[in-house]
Write a structure and sequence with these properties.
Blueprint lengths: L23 H10 L12 H7 L25 H8 L18 H14 L3 E5 L2 H12 L5 E5 L4 H15 L2 E5 L4 H7 L5 E7 L11 H10 L3 E5 L16 E5 L13 E5 L1 H7 L6 H5 L5 H10 L3 H21 L4 E2 L9 H7 L9 E5 L3 H13 L5 E2 L9 E4 L10 H7 L5 E5 L6 H17 L8
Parallel strand pairs: 2-3, 2-4, 4-5, 5-6, 10-11
Antiparallel strand pairs: 1-7, 6-7, 8-9, 9-12, 11-12
């Protein structure tokens, strides 16, 4: 099947199922459907780039796009189907075959994600892990090699460390992503396919030097893949040199803790290769996003910037106050954080330093006590994995989202047994929630569970 440029799908003409009609209604419908043109490829503010993206109107002129819930699509003439399967007619001209391949609603969300991250194209998937695995399987063949940060989401680490070597003969060298000489040494030109890291690591909140890491990788002809789940709007890896940007859209982008979704943002050539009918990982493995999910997410993207600013603002205020109380706080917005200056130099202006912070309680027992009183005594937050919800979510990473790692791997990644990861929400007022935090600490002191080493 011939390819098309998903990045240019914003320039699609109105649907022509059998032939071209020149009546005034078709012209009006086409003009209304394409209210905006493509955003500039390197717009500095991701919110501005989103606002510049084409607005997709509904089938009957609704301000929201329609949900194309069909699994398969009809044609008016038999010859049209043949031309679709040869690639002569495709989504760039509004011809669709089957929703596992391309779906109009999902494609529209992909166009918005490309605008958000400043990439040529994007494709949205059924989950964040399906985005991760599909990209790696597309970029690496049997015998392939990945250099990856040793501090990653537990599921990604396990995929790289255990599943891919067993199932696909793809091996990974794990490195300290802040040790650039180590990264350079582990990348073997002609053998290494991918340099993989998170813009802000899960859960330790170390910040990757995206421009420098891209220079190192590109000097050796290696593709840079960055998971930006922790820092949408805050950091734009593609604008800093990354080739591919991944998201678990289930987190900040969704904001409601009610949807599972992922995204691959990158060159149109990559998206095309992943959708190839003979060799494409997305096409053949089938991690298809439901168009109803795509519709929901498209409606949440316009206020992602506002939400991120409030997440980040509260995280900064709480981190500062927690530090003053004597807690061991990890937050890139604090000047003493080793990556503070780096993040400040890379971050998009006015979006802050991220919506997550960590409190290191040193032991799992103390971590559990803290979370227990924060949820069950003061209602500061909820004990739950994931992030980006309007309520604060708390988990002890070593025994939850990073539990797949061995004790040695957790120690190497800097994950303390008592590390409490907090995704700071924006529900209620800032002072109301802070009062609840202080109430919890007071409760711990009263029960003699709180000590100065916290």
């Amino acid at each position: 099947m011939a390819t098309f440029n998903p990045g240019n799908i914003a320039n699609m003409s109105s649907k022509k199922r059998s032939g071209s009609s020149d009546d005034q209604w078709d012209q009006f419908a086409a003009a209304k459907k394409h209210h905006h043109s493509l955003p500039p490829p390197h717009a500095e503010d991701p919110a501005a780039a989103l606002a510049n993206a084409r607005h997709e109107f509904g089938e009957h002129g609704g301000v929201n796009m329609s949900i194309e819930a069909s699994a398969t699509f009809t044609v008016m003439e038999p010859e049209t189907m043949r031309r679709m399967f040869t690639g002569e007619l495709g989504p760039d001209r509004d011809f669709f075959i089957y929703s596992r391949h391309f779906n109009p609603t999902v494609l529209n969300l992909g166009r918005l994600m490309a605008a958000l991250e400043g990439t040529e194209a994007a494709y949205c998937t059924a989950s964040g892990m399906s985005a991760v695995s599909s990209v790696l399987l597309q970029l690496c063949s049997s015998g392939g090699h990945v250099v990856a940060s040793k501090t990653l989401y537990g599921g990604t680490h396990t995929l790289l460390a255990h599943f891919l070597p067993r199932a696909c003969n793809i091996t990974t060298s794990f490195v300290d992503i802040g040790d650039h000489e180590m990264v350079r040494r582990e990348i073997v030109q002609g053998r290494t396919n991918v340099l993989y890291f998170e813009s802000m690591s899960n859960p330790t909140l170390t910040v990757a030097n995206v421009p420098e890491l891209c220079r190192i990788a590109h000097d050796k002809g290696v593709t840079v893949v960055v998971d930006n789940t922790f820092a949408p709007m805050v950091v734009s890896p593609a604008r800093l040199g990354a080739d591919v940007v991944l998201h678990s859209m289930s987190k900040f982008i969704s904001g409601g803790a009610d949807l599972i979704a992922g995204a691959v943002c990158g060159p149109a050539s990559l998206v095309n290769s992943m959708m190839d009918t003979h060799q494409g990982s997305l096409m053949l493995l089938g991690p298809t996003m439901n168009p109803k999910v795509a519709f929901e997410l498209a409606g949440r993207l316009p206020h992602l910037g506002l939400r991120m600013k409030e997440h980040c603002h509260r995280a900064m205020v709480y981190a500062t106050r927690m530090k003053k109380l004597g807690l061991k706080v990890i937050y890139p917005g604090l000047e003493e954080h080793p990556d503070h200056a780096l993040l400040k130099s890379m971050a998009n202006k006015e979006y802050g330093y991220g919506g997550l912070l960590c409190v290191d309680m040193e032991t799992e027992e103390k971590a559990n006590r803290l979370m227990n009183v924060l949820q069950n005594c003061s209602q500061f937050g909820l004990m739950a994995v994931s992030l980006g919800y309007y309520e604060t979510l708390m988990s002890c990473s070593g025994s939850s989202t990073s539990s797949e790692l061995t004790e040695e791997e957790k120690a190497s990644a800097g994950i303390s047994p008592g590390l409490v990861r907090m995704s700071i929400g924006f529900n209620g007022t800032l002072e109301q929630k802070w009062s609840q935090f202080e109430k919890a600490l007071s409760r711990m002191q009263d029960s003699s569970s709180f000590n100065n080493k916290m």
